[in-house]
Structure formats: structure tokens, C-alpha cells
């Protein structure tokens, strides 16, 4: 078997070919796009005097972005651009990445929920990563360092395309694969463009019985794109010691120079390429400069990089977003930012952190047609939507209908019953039109059926209300296809069995009282949430003990599961503009860090003739989203 060193040429060659394919697609008619889920207008204050001033028509090109999804697809979409989003190719001045580099890392997260038993205190639920995240990490490390490096080459190659001519990339790594990554970066960026190998040193106790020196440093490789690069040294200079100043001045006077002619003391020195800074755990968790994320890096470390290698107004990017410290530092230092992460919990942490910072309005985006893209990567050029529908029906336990009645392969039946099953397409939103069509097919196809079950990937925001309004009772059921199904198919293929796949019920948000009243020259709006129904706990990646804890919370107070909710008082049906938010940990609206308030009060709204279309969005502690819309006269 070849050594890793012997395999590096093929790793680089294949990775560059993959990057070229992505670029070709970005320049073709078929482009991968970004869907804007939310325009977040941070507001912890309910009194907005100039609520929509300069906000209503904020162009996508001028806003920072938080992107949920695989970073390879996110980078591809940023390169491609669209009608609504200008391509960022050659426009990013600084990329900092801190990719996971420990194959044995435990990426589970802990969720704290309020207890309804005064003796037990708060409940701690240990949540394993979503299956999507697990597969991302296990795919990265499936063949050890080989597969890790293979995944990094196309990403690094595409990041180079995003960099401006004077742009730089800082790659944060440790001893596991650090020197191999340097070889890759020499090949992609040119070894002549290595500006520094920065050693970040920190302190901490060692393990008992150690038989080696304590490993207490990481490495950051700084490469520029070209032989010209941004280097802002004025903000990062350090004072010289009195001893150094004395020695320097003494040396000048022996040589006949006048020390006052030099600005040594005023300017200070440029720091060396070894940095001693405490790890993030030494800084207090305040929700702004530190949020307590496991792999979070300290604010001063990131701030030095941002101040050095970008300018005010520059775009700064991080494609392994994690805690969001890069976005937060960029925001605090008047830079625009683009961050992405494949983890829903990470995206929630970043969104809350930026709201805490009173950030300028930013976009929360998803990768368009995510499932289709994943399926293309799994099945290649053979991919057909109908093939996927057929697989989904089989995993649900449905037998396909005869081909003459079922040319798209998307309908099946449950053996021994009069139940019809319809698998919707992953590049469609399952909404009212789908429901009506399914009912029509149920009532007319092959003599009619007692019931129709719709299996969907993506759902319109009003799906819960649409189901209720149609009044079909038990004759219509809508279930969620597991969002990780494509990753599992990629991993297991035909070995995946029906009893390993759970199709869950929709989460559902129910609004309470809504009040709209005049307030001088403006309007005020009160919006309450009455109930939240979580997806079946069986669909979550929890063990039995944690699932039981969760069920107890659901039974006692389902609203305790809400992590974040926001209101758009004038929803246009396309872009949700979040102008009021509350979230767990925000104690400015109430003193309970583990619950959100259940009523939003928006004041200072501009007067509007006719009804207001109010939309409410909720995200629960597991990252599931629900939405409700209502017109208020």
C-alpha cells in the first residue's frame, strides 16, 4: 500500500479536477444558488423609531451572509452568483478557516432545558450531531488523513478563486495533519506566497503519565494569493520593552545617529510569528466575545488576523463557522463577512451572537436544491428525480403502482390497505397545490383510495395551516422525509433498510392573540405564540434516557423547546425580514435564560392602510423550523 506521501500527487490532481468541475458549472447556465431564508435585522429593543429606513430594500450584494450547508456547495454558489447575489469571485480579502482536524473528536452538543421539578434543577440533554453532520465528519475521516486531505484540496482551490488579488488565507491546523496541509497549500497557493507559519502557543495541564512534551500549540499557515497583499500593521504593533529601547538608543549614539530621528518608541514593533494567547476557555462567556462553543478560538487571536489582513469595508470569510467568532470580530471591526457551517446548532449560535452584537442587517441563507445536489454527488450523471422517489417509497414500505398509472415513479400503495403514498420531489416545496393534487389523485386514481400519505422534503411555511384548512382528517397525512436520507444512502446504498428510516410528522406552530393598534403617528403590534409541536422525538438523534427527558418537557411545556423566534410585521411572501427577535439566553426581555418570552410587542411601526401580513418564525433547540402567517386588519 502506498504511503500518504506517495498518494499526495493523486490527491492534489483529483481535488483540482473537482474544483475545475465546480467552476465550469458556476460559469454555465445551470448554477447552484442560495435561498435567502431570512433578512435578520437585529433588535432586542421593541421600540424601532426608524424601523424600515434603509432596510426594506437592502440588496443582497451589500449584506453579510450566514449560510447553512456543506461549505463546498456554499463556495460554489458564491462563485456562481445569481440575479439576486453577485458572484464573490475575486472579491474576498481575507479567509480564515479552522477545519476540524481531530478524527476522534466528539461533536455532540448539550441542550439545557428548564425542569418542572424544583428539586432536580435544569435538565441537560446530550444531543449527538445530526446525521448530516455525522456523515460530513465521518466521510472526511473515513480513510484517515487521506480522505481528510482529499476533501480539503477542492475547497482550498475554490477558496483561492474567491480571494481578491491582494487577498490572504489563514488556515488554522494542529499536529495531526498540519505538515501535509502545508504541502497542499504550497501546491495550490504557491510556496513563494507563504507569508508566515504562525505558531499559536497556549498553556494548560498535561495528562497523567505523559512520556512526551506537552502539546500546547497550533499552527496557522498564512498564504497570500499573489506577491501583493494587505498588511495593516498600525493596529497590531506592540510596545518595545524598556531594555530594548535602551539598547537600541545606546547603539545609535555609538554610531553617531540621533535617537530622536527614529520612531521606534512611538510605532512599536510588529509581533513575531509566535503568539502567546490564552485559549478561549480562559475568557468569560458573555455571548459576544465568547459563547462557550467547544472549538471556539479566542477573540484577540482572530482580531489580530482580521485587523492585519483586511481593511474596513473588506469582506472576511470563514467556511467552518463554528462559534461565529470570525463574523463577530469582522462585524465589530467594520468588515463585511460571509460564514457557513454544516451544523444547525452552530448556525443558531452564530445568529444569536450577531444579534447580541447589534450587527448590521445580514442574510441567513440555505443552499438551493440541497437534496438534489447531494443526490447528484451520490448517483452522478445517472441521477433522476424519479429514481429517488422510488427509493423513498420503498423505504417507507410502499409498493410502486403500475408504470402506466405511475410514469414518474413517485406513487405507491401500502399492501393490504387502500392507502396511497406520494413521494414529492426534493426540488419542490410541498404546499397547498401539492395537497390539493394529492387529494384529487386519492379520490380519482384507480377507483379511489381511503387515504393519501404525502412524503415531502421541503415545505411551504404555511403547510400546517393548509392541512388544517382542508379539513381532511385522517384521510390526508403529511410526513417529513429524513433530511439526512441522502447522506445515509451515500454511505450505505442498497444496504439501508426500511426499519432504519423514520418518517416524522411536521412540526407545527400555533399563534395566540394578535393585536394591532394606533400609537400617535405610528402603529404598535402584539403577537403571541400559543403552542409549538415538535417533530416526533423518535426522529432525533437521542438515546432512550435523553428521549425520555425530552418527552417530559414536551408534556409539561412545549414552548420551552423554542430556541429563537422572530417576527416580520409586513411579510411579502418571499424574503422574511426579521425585525424583532427573542431567544434563550437573552435576559433583556425577561430574566429566564432558558425560556423565550411568548409575546412580542413591536412599537413605532409606520402606519399602513389595509391589513398587515404578519409572519412568525420559530426555531427549536434542535434546529427545526416552523412558521405561521396571519393577516391582521
Automatic annotation (TrEMBL):
Its EC number is 2.1.1.72. The keyword Transcription regulation does not apply. The keyword Protease does not apply. It comes from the Bacteria. Keywords: Methyltransferase, S-adenosyl-L-methionine, Transferase. PROSITE patterns: N6_MTASE. Belongs to the N(4)/N(6)-methyltransferase family. This is site-specific DNA-methyltransferase (adenine-specific). It comes from Aquamicrobium terrae.
